[in-house]
Write a structure and sequence with these properties.
It is built from two helices and 13 strands; from the N terminus they run ββββββββββββαβα. With 212 residues, the protein is mainly beta. The chain has one domain. The strands form two sheets. Strands 1, 2, 3, 4, 5, 6, 10, 11, 12 and 13 form a ten-stranded mixed β-sheet that branches. The chain has a three-stranded antiparallel β-sheet with strand order 8-7-9, with no helix packed on it. The chain starts with a strand and ends in a 9-residue tail after the last helix. The model has no long low-confidence stretch (mean pLDDT 95).
């Protein structure tokens, strides 16, 4: 559960919760810790717009999509890091790219270009060239029948500094990324919920969100 003070805030807090089934009460796992999000704050992710804020997440706007999204797979530079995880892990090679070209058939996909005979994209993030991607996970935003204007390549990853906003991803200190990845269990269908404070309070009861 990630909450920021307001729509334009770059800093927020994240706290982990777990429950066995939908009827159970959310149980906190550890304490909250600081994160940074998009350099321009948040905007509603595709399909989640609510209330009075009209802003929608768009490609290249440096905003994090508010909403609830699945988390998987994990990824990183170390080839063996995934051995003790309870979720899929992609060991990033020099050929891994996250495609952010809306004209590509692989838009918003993490792909290995060595496995693609005819790459059709003109832009993409070369994952191994970005130090902050040395450890993280994919946030499954806009991945099913993607809206080509709604944004791409959303990750949880290591932050550059505690005050430096991202292009839209969620970032935190490396120790917290490791801790979170070791805790996540794919069999429990993990998700991340991300909202500014007021939107979180407005939706907490009706969406059965954890109590901060």
């Amino acid at each position: 559960m990630l909450v920021t003070p307001h729509w334009n805030a770059v800093n927020g807090t994240l706290r982990r919760y777990q429950r066995e089934n939908a009827a159970d009460v959310w149980q906190p796992i550890g304490g909250s810790f600081p994160v940074v999000i998009g350099a321009k704050g948040m905007a509603w992710g595709a399909g989640f717009q609510r209330g009075q804020n009209p802003k929608l997440k768009m490609e290249g706007d440096k905003r994090t999509p508010a909403g609830i999204y699945a988390v998987s797979p994990a990824f990183g530079f170390e080839p063996d890091f995934g051995q003790n995880l309870k979720m899929p892990y992609v060991a990033l090679a020099a050929t891994h790219v996250c495609v952010d070209d809306p004209a590509s058939n692989d838009y918003n996909q993490l792909v290995d270009r060595a496995q693609i005979q005819h790459p059709d994209w003109k832009s993409g993030e070369r994952m191994r060239e970005i130090p902050q991607y040395r450890l993280g996970s994919v946030i499954q935003y806009n991945t099913e029948s993607p809206d080509k204007k709604a944004g791409s390549c959303m990750f949880m990853h290591v932050w550059k500094t505690p005050e430096t906003g991202t292009a839209g991803c969620i970032a935190m200190e490396e120790a917290k990324v490791k801790e979170t990845l070791h805790w996540l269990d794919a069999s429990l269908k993990p998700v991340i919920a991300m909202f500014p404070e007021k939107a979180y309070r407005d939706l907490q009861y009706s969406w059965k969100l954890p109590k901060e």
